[in-house]
Description:
The structure holds 2 protein chains of 2 kinds.
Chain A: E1 5-7, E2 10-13, E3 19-24, E4 31-38, E5 42-50, E6 53-57, E7 64-68, E8 74-78, E9 87-94, E10 106-107, E11 111-115
Parallel strand pairs in A: 2-11
Antiparallel strand pairs in A: 1-3, 3-8, 4-5, 4-9, 5-6, 7-8, 9-10, 9-11
Chain B: E1 4-6, E2 11-14, E3 19-25, E4 32-38, E5 45-50, E6 54-58, E7 61-66, E8 71-76, E9 85-93, E10 101-104, E11 108-113
Amino acid sequence: EAGVTQSPTHLIKTRGQQVTLRCSPISGHTSVYWYQQALGLGLQFLLWYDEGEERNRGNFPPRFSGRQFPNYSSELNVNALELEDSALYLCASSLGEGQGDFSPLHFGNGTRLTVT
Amino acid sequence: QKEVEQDPGPLSVPEGAIVSLNCTYSNSAFQYFMWYRQYSRKGPELLMYTYSSGNKEDGRFTAQVDKSSKYISLFIRDSQPSDSATYLCAMSVILGFGNEKLTFGTGTRLTIIP
């Protein structure tokens, strides 16, 4: 069974630019989560999508946005990049509502974004 | 006070030793407890998850939950150099629709010395 896949693996952007990160969940998973892991800060929750809808959002500015497609894959968009956006962006997936009481998150290997 | 506290380490132990990794938490509503392992430049990998107090064993790994003390542990027996990684604890409370509140510890960096 293929795990969560993310692309690209690495990205270098300039401050002020925009970036799109992509994620494909595990087959059968309908929930997709995005996390930011900056050096020394741990995992910070960004966004949660399920069945194509945004279900919850972390404490990040509106320039962080995303969407989930009918095939449950997802994109994370970051506009007006700032230096402090440099981090590892992790996507995770799990079973959605009605598919069980509890479904732990399974993570991809992330996209490492460097903003210069 | 953070909801989940985890000693960042680093923790270095000789090969073959028993490793104990710990997290404490303040939110008594947490129901599910997870341990993830993260190798350098990789995403977190789910090791184990538990629901109730007590122990759960999987090979060389044992997860322990003490809800009365709000304390969870991960024990690694016969530690190997390949166990060198950052270990993250995570805790979840179901609020009616999936993992509506999931909180991670900051991770403990572990090195097993051959």
